[in-house]
Amino acid sequence: LLKFRLGKEALPGQETVNVIRFLKDMDPIDFFIVRENRPKKGEAVKVLLISSKGTSRITRREKLYSYEVLEGEDTLGYSADPRIAPLMRAGFHDVYAWREATAGHAYPDIPVLVTQIFDTSRSGTVFISMKAGWGMNSEAINRHGGSLREEMLATFCISGPGLSKGDFHTASIVDITPTILALLLVDYQPGYFDGR
Questions:
Q1: CA-closest candidate to residue 148, choices 126, 132, 127, 172
Q2: How far is it, in rounded angstroms, from Cα 152 to Cα 114?
Q3: Is the pTM of this model over 0.85?
Q4: Which has fewest Cβ within 10 Å: 58, 60, 173, 175?
């Protein structure tokens, strides 16, 4: 891949390669994510999820997210899930609606997570999500930090005075910091954190 030049003519001695077609045809790749735009302040972030089956788009406006199928089959299979399909039809929703609806799916919280990848100008152009059991090398087979549900699951237990007993169905790492600060009675600006 290093010899390919995205959006440019081939150098002498190099062939022109359609990188999208090249990646779509690689069996170990589940899907790959590309930035559709470089938004200016206040503009929506648009990200494409491309697989051998189809292309989908995630759009983020402020802190609201939408997911739509552009061509072919649904890249994530969300449209076949009765908990997620209504969100797709109804447009934009917040992080908690997406997290709750996608929690039991093979690809939980993806509309939120993949748009955050591109929040910095230093992020890459293409991110690759491997199929289960595959990795970028023999030492790094999908185990943690990927887009599949089994790569995201973690246990979090906490107890103490003032905490009510019970389980919660979904949470994210971004919820832990405000929770711990509140328990320690540390003053902080709630709007500073994405979590609750």
A1: 132
A2: 14
A3: no
A4: 173
